[in-house]
Amino acid sequence: MQDQALADVTHKDMANAIRALAMDAVQRANSGHPGMPMGMADVATVLFTQFLKFDAAHPDWPDRDRFVLSAGHGSMLLYALLYLTGYPEMDIGQIERFRQLGSATAGHPEYGHAPGIETTTGPLGQGVGNAVGMALAERLLNARYGDDIVSHFTYCLAGDGCLMEGISQEAISLAGHLKLGRLIVLFDDNQISIDGSTDLAVSDDQLQRFSASGWHTAAVDGHDPQAVALAIENARNVTDRPSLIACRTVIGYGAPNKEGTSSTHGSPLGEEEVAGAREKLGWSYPPFVVPDEILAAWREAGAQNRAAFERWSAAAAKLDGTARDHLVDPVDEKVSAAISEAVAGIKADFAAEGAKLATRQSSQKVLERLVPVVPGLIGGSADLTGSVGTLTKQHSTVKAGEFTGNYIHYGVREHAMGAAMNGMALHGGIVPYAGTFLVFSDYCRPSIRLSALMEQRVIYVMTHDSIGLGEDGPTHQPVEQLAALRAVPGLNVMRPADSIECAECWDIALKSKTTPTIMTLTRQGLPLLRTAPTGDNLCAKGAYALIEPEGGRDVTLLSTGSEVSLAVDAAKVLGGEGIKAAVVSMPCWELFDAQDAAYRDTVLGSGPRVAVEAAVEFGWRKWLGPNGVFIGMRGFGASGPAGELYKHFGITPEAVAAAARGLVV
Amino acid sequence: MQDQALADVTHKDMANAIRALAMDAVQRANSGHPGMPMGMADVATVLFTQFLKFDAAHPDWPDRDRFVLSAGHGSMLLYALLYLTGYPEMDIGQIERFRQLGSATAGHPEYGHAPGIETTTGPLGQGVGNAVGMALAERLLNARYGDDIVSHFTYCLAGDGCLMEGISQEAISLAGHLKLGRLIVLFDDNQISIDGSTDLAVSDDQLQRFSASGWHTAAVDGHDPQAVALAIENARNVTDRPSLIACRTVIGYGAPNKEGTSSTHGSPLGEEEVAGAREKLGWSYPPFVVPDEILAAWREAGAQNRAAFERWSAAAAKLDGTARDHLVDPVDEKVSAAISEAVAGIKADFAAEGAKLATRQSSQKVLERLVPVVPGLIGGSADLTGSVGTLTKQHSTVKAGEFTGNYIHYGVREHAMGAAMNGMALHGGIVPYAGTFLVFSDYCRPSIRLSALMEQRVIYVMTHDSIGLGEDGPTHQPVEQLAALRAVPGLNVMRPADSIECAECWDIALKSKTTPTIMTLTRQGLPLLRTAPTGDNLCAKGAYALIEPEGGRDVTLLSTGSEVSLAVDAAKVLGGEGIKAAVVSMPCWELFDAQDAAYRDTVLGSGPRVAVEAAVEFGWRKWLGPNGVFIGMRGFGASGPAGELYKHFGITPEAVAAAARGLVV
Q1: How far is CA A328 from the centre of its chain?
Q2: Helix (H) or strand (E) holding A453
Q3: Domain identity same for B343 and B445
Q4: Do B502 and B554 fall into the same domain?
Q5: Contacts of B616 in chain A (CB under 8 A)
Q6: What is the largest CA-CA distance in chain A?
Q7: How far apart are the first and last CA of chain B?
């Protein structure tokens, strides 16, 4: 390669390489979205060649700038950039196998499929929330590690769809409030959505909207590289506010007949149009071929921060090993041991005190012990701090300019809270948890799903987990949320029955590196049931016999959370009648399901079964069998004192005992 | 009552009556939210005495102004207003039994509990979306009926929490785009949320934010009745844009020590503080007592629009009976018969054509017939019109100023779409349906829940209902959504197996006056299975034997939607081996569950069972029993061509046949 040849490579050549790869890959797959990558190729080229701090050879560099493709349908933009800049695993074969089973180049970017894919996107607006979380993580870690170790930007590419989704407003508003000056959103302002012109559905002045949330804003011609570079430069210099750059682009730029129309959005251009685009763009190379000198120019960009990476490595080498490890994963072996010790201590205390506590209170007490031993633990709540017990004496509040804190007031923004927690977990260095009411898990369900799909350790503290919350009534009483969450693959749904189970569930959640957890907790007080605590974490197998009658079982009572104490009371009543009832607590169905059949059979017993849970039956037949009886909710709840509601809906020890009697006789 | 005494009643007296009732009721219940009603009492008094077009004696007046309390936790504001103005069923006893089991005065306003409660609120931001739907319904019906019959305002009271929720942005943006000039949002700008000062979490300039979406905005002192009245008057005169009035208020206004603090938000003030508030407000009456002259002044306000109501009644009397009926319920007996006829016709056509169609396409063909016979049917989509088949040749687009149309481009705003559809259904006169992808049901789940809780006929068209969508990959492939939706009480989840079932499901959905429906439809083509169509709607019982082998069953294959054809193929394979397999199609579990046990047992059969559905197993054990075999998804999907995915995940006729063989042998 001649240096001269390399020097002759223009911005246009480099951007066209992205466009060609995008249209060719979509055409080959006969499926996909060429419009966005072709439209944003200029902006992306400017960003990756002039600004983005990354080293393709070291994709895990903790202090790299993060690039989030929130408009995930434009995945070929990202794959093209990763291939061109020389990321590992992203060879041309992957580009050729776009959208094929088993390839790294899935229809939408999938975290974990290849280095350089910072997050899974596609469900619109999520990436904006992830980016806010990453930018927040950067500031939190910067406050702990200093500029030499953590000091990077987060860039997010968002489309019209991302900005129409409500989650974007929550994220924008939160970022503006926290003045996340190192967050830069590049808005692909192409004025086209799937249904056609954005005029069909939206008339917002996006600059004014972002400005209303305290953002720096700018608008540029997204096909003018100098203007884009200047806007990014300016945005980087505005460090007291996040920045929006609205990039006016032409969707499908280069397609002779289709550019600027919705027909380029989500379908292949067609062979003829692709040929026409080659001509119009001046790109005379065959499909999937990028000329050596253009590829070399891109590879040079992929390595241009090598010196910065090496400076960083030298600085990081001076950190002690623990601090260095925690930058990536805050729960190493030492912290894990400290968690075990803290949990053992609080279990002993709970047992000694024997107090009746709501599990939201138990959880707070557990956190009181855990926060000091897990430095990367960052708490928060969606404006229900006092109600959900997420704040401890160990916390201080994170505010704009004060990132030494470890507690975030997310505001009434459950959805952005979930997406930001995903972003923090993905960033590394942080174990995020935050709380709201269980019924409002519905408000952040798309983010919960992504926690599970991306296998991120994100802990959702969700209290007021049944009609036991009382007077707030059916809008606030979850009845179907437990089932709906248990249906999500790769998600641990925990429902501890007392303080000790609560401590054990926290232990599991913090050590589940690749599984998010929902902690469902009560508003109302619960008696201590685990009066003989053991060193073992009994919740770790998901379910266990809390009461095993001597001489075998006549009936097994299955339950979770607040209803386990009803089952215990029922067992006592039955015992008085000579009916031997086991009580099985099932704090986590998913963990129980993962045990071997022998264990499951032993716990469930071979005799008749009754289940009690203040929620709908949906899903319970798996454990109950066809002849078991379920005591629970048959529809929505009602407003009234909790005790009256339990009676009204027939969820009582008497009802459980009666059901058991009916099966035994 | 002396007229003079009545004339002497001041604004302050009337507002204080609300405050006193609110603090007394919360104190009595020892639970609730006094802060908002006390803070917004002045604004509400101005609205109800000077502007709101309502007649307490005729709460169902179709052309009444709608008042939506989006900040539903302040329910006592609404209950106090309903009592004071003399609505039926809202006597002082109801106020005294606030938040008690069985009372109309639930913790949050519950639609249907008493006249005058226009919608169920509490989950924040939903009311804003409902109000947008109501204001849209008003314009749609105005375009059809004229000013004499439909011409009213929609007022929505929203708090900080409502405006922080992302759904509010979607709703605001949609309302601004459609220029809903008769929508007026009263923002309770009290600068307090549950965690404390709103400064903790939010810094938005709300006026600028609404202005960015094309709203008229104003800010007033919410305790200055003249200023509030002027602002409302101005807002009513701005008819080319919706209006926001930010009312600066003091939360808990009148509480001597607690006003202006978060401690008034969600807890009783306490006896002492209540006494202090009585003194400070100059309200010397005992709890729950409103002096006669003040009550009389309120009752006068409740009847002040009697003449307007009578003018309206006279105009409405001139309508033909059908038009008058459709103003409330667009599906009367005649329309119902027309639906049956249209469905019978399209079923016959489907049978005659025998074409392979995706159910999203079948659905579009069904709608093509239904739109002309159900004038109140208003379609739409969240920017997936072409993909979900919601638009027909019978539609024209609703635009700002053009409300004769019947199709709404909701934009990428699934959540506001759901909430707006709830608002339209609640308004009366409209049967709303709209579409997105099934996986994005998660984005509007809180609104779906409220459709069910409020028993509203809202039809969600949700396509791309499995891995059958192919290359878009796991972010777009629902695996747990069917289970999650089936878990919601009072919701019909339909999954038709072919064109004919699709038509039958539409028939059921449109006639289910008190049940919302999720139509889950495929992206991929499906063969016609119901080759011998009957006049009967076989889907109406939720499940039925599609194939009943002669001479009894060896095995029963259960399935839904796109997998029914796999079961049919498996049955053929098994038949060739001498194994008699029945195939049961289960398009709607909820309807099947509502049949008597004898029917269910007959359909399910007493022999071994195999179920096949391209989704997680969660919930299937109810029909399968412990020994049945489930063929489906065990986790998230993958990106690739649909046919390959079905093979990859082992969801094939061969797998079904093998499972059946294993059970029969």
Answers
A1: 17
A2: helix A445-453
A3: yes
A4: no
A5: 487, 489
A6: 95
A7: 88
Mean pLDDT on B123-129: 98
CA–CA separation, A292 and A74 (whole Å):
25
Tell me, yes or no, if B484 comes closer than 8 A to chain A by beta carbon.
yes
User: How close B519 gets to chain A, by Cα (Å)?
Assistant: 18
CATH number at residue A647: 3.40.50.920
Q: Is the Cβ pair A165, B470 closer than 8 Å?
A: no
Q: Model ipTM?
A: 0.98
Over residues A460-495, the pLDDT tens digits come to 999 999 999 999 999 999 999 999 999 999 999 999
Tell me, yes or no, whether B558 lies in a domain.
yes
**CA angle, corner B157, sides to B153 and B163, nearest 5?**
120
Q: Are residues A496 and A554 in the same domain?
A: no
Sort out which chain B residues have CB atoms less than 8 A from A167's CB and list them: 166
Evaluate whether A609 touches A620 at the Cβ level (below 8 Å): no
Which chain B residues are Cβ-neighbours of A484 within 8 angstroms? 445, 480, 483-484, 487-488
Same domain, residue pair A565 and A501 = no
Does B534 map to a domain?
A: no
CA distance from start to end of chain A: 88
Provide the residue type at A436 as one letter.
T
Asked if B212 and A200 come within 8 Å (Cβ–Cβ), the reply is no
Q: Is A383 in contact with B193 (Cβ distance < 8 A)?
A: yes
In angstroms, the CA B611 to CA A470 distance is 39
Check if the beta carbon of residue B590 is closer than 8 Å to that of residue B491.
yes
User: Domain containing A356 — which CATH number?
Assistant: 3.40.50.970
pTM above 0.80, yes or no: yes
Q: What value does the mean pLDDT take over residues B37-61?
A: 98
CB contact under 8 A, A453 and B636: yes
A475 touches chain B (CB under 8 A): yes
Facing A476 at nearest CB: one of B122, B174, B644: B122
HSE (CB half, 13 Å, CA atoms) of B287? 15
d(CA A577, nearest CA chain B) in Å: 30
Please name the residue of chain B whose CA is at the shortest distance from the CA of residue A170.
Answer: B166
Q: Locate the chain B residue with the closest alpha carbon to A645.
A: B101
Q: What is the pLDDT of residues A5-33, one digit of tens each?
A: 777 999 999 999 999 999 999 999 999 99
Helix B35-46, helix B75-85: angle, nearest 10: 40
Tokens of B433: 């349906």
Q: Is residue B3, in this structure, part of any structural domain at all?
A: no
Residue A441 DSSP code: G
The count of C-alpha atoms lying within 13 angstroms of the C-alpha of A577, restricted to the half-sphere facing its C-beta, is: 16
Residues 6+ apart with CB under 8 A from B94: B79, B83, B103, B104, B105, B114
CA–CA separation, B508 and A653 (whole Å):
40
Interatomic CA distance for residues A81 and A195, integer angstroms: 28
| Phi, psi angle pair for B557, to nearest 5° | -105, 120
- A105–chain B nearest CA distance, Å: 9
Q: Is residue A474 part of a domain?
A: yes
CB atoms within 10 A of CB A8: 12
B464 is in an annotated binding site: yes
Residue A155 contacts residue A186 (beta carbons within 8 Å): yes
A556 in Cβ contact with A609 (< 8 Å): yes
Instruction: Report chain B residues whose CB lies below 8 A from the CB of A384.
Output: 194-195
Number of domains making up chain B: 3
Same domain, A511 and A548: no
For B437, half-sphere exposure in the C-beta direction (CA atoms, 13 angstrom radius) is 24
Return the structure tokens found at B409: 């481009």
The answer for residues whose C-beta is within 8 angstroms of residue A442's C-beta and 6 or more apart is: A481, A484, B123, B445, B446, B449
Q: Which domain holds residue A356?
A: 333-520
Give the model confidence (pLDDT) of A60-113 as tens digits. Answer: 999 999 999 999 999 999 999 999 999 999 999 999 999 999 999 999 999 999
Q: Are residues B133 and B259 in the same domain?
A: yes
